[in-house]
Amino acid sequence: QLQLQESGPGLVKPSETLSLTCTVSGGSISSSSYYWGWIRQPPGKGLEWIGSIYYSGSAYYTPSLKSRVTISVDTSKNQFSLKLSSVTAADTAVYYCARDDRVHNWNVFEYWGQGTLVTVSS
Amino acid sequence: QSALTQPPSASGSPGQSVTISCTGTSSDVGGYNYVSWYQQHPGKAPKLIIYEVSKRPSGVPDRFSGSKSGNTASLTVSGLQAEDEADYYCSSYAGSNNYVFGTGTKVTVL
């Protein structure tokens, strides 16, 4: 059974860079059938797709965050990572990693991590 | 791209049906048959319940059904059960390799 697990600091200072890693188990991140994505949810608010990456490194980002986001992949560790720069309080959210099935099925996130809360505060 | 519009809340008694709308534009909901719906219980990750407007992943009860007309997609939950009380989010492909989610609807089972 595929499992995803987010990890990283739960507290980040304003103007600094938020860094999270998602470790995939029970399947290979190098599969040609899937992308791997990040989605966030501010407390009490809705979901926002941040971006998705292929094992080759090809990535897509939501336009509103594109200038601040970098998603990378490490196939040797079966992990992919998120970096969000110049954070503000508005970036406080639960961050989820998920499998993006866009190679065969657009807009399908069937497997999700449990989510990790990142708070931006001094 | 703006979030898709959903009603903040919906409710129904056990056994009844509830329908949630999801309104977008011709650039997202209306332009593609790639609308998905997610169910989220408090403190949990979202769960995919509908994809490609009306398809159900394996294991999702057929009480959940989806449809689309123009720029508005809908999720219907028939035969409401207590465990259906949750937040529901729609999502659509928005072109140029982008996705957009809805504002979310809290479903209450009375």
Overview of the structural elements:
The complex is a heterodimer of chains A (122) and B (110). Chain A is built from no helices and eleven strands. Chain A is mainly β. In chain A, strands 2, 4, 5, 6, 9, 10 and 11 form a seven-stranded mixed beta sheet that branches. Chain A has a four-stranded antiparallel beta sheet with strand order 1-3-8-7, with no helix packed on it. In chain A, a hairpin with an 8-residue loop joins β9 and β10. Chain B is 0% helix and 44% strand. Chain B contains no helices and nine strands. In chain B, the strands form two sheets. In chain B, strands 1, 3, 4, 7, 8 and 9 form a six-stranded mixed beta sheet that branches. In chain B, β7 and β8 form a beta hairpin. The radius of gyration of chain B is 13 Å and the shape is globular. The model of chain B has no long low-confidence stretch (mean pLDDT 97). Chains A and B meet through β10 of A and β3, β7 and β8 of B.
Q: Strand portion of chain B, in percent?
A: 35-45%
Q: Most extensive interface, residues per chain?
A: A-B, 22 and 27 residues
Kindly, what is the distance between the CA atoms of the first and last residues of chain B, rounded to a whole number of angstroms? 35 Å
Number of helices of chain A: 0
Assembly context of the chains: heterodimer
Q: What general outline of chain A do the C-alpha atoms trace?
A: globular
Number of strands of chain A: 11
Comma- or semicolon-separated keywords:
heterodimer; A: mainly beta; four-stranded antiparallel sheet; 11 strands; B: 110 residues; six-stranded mixed sheet; three-stranded antiparallel sheet; 0% helix; 44% strand; globular
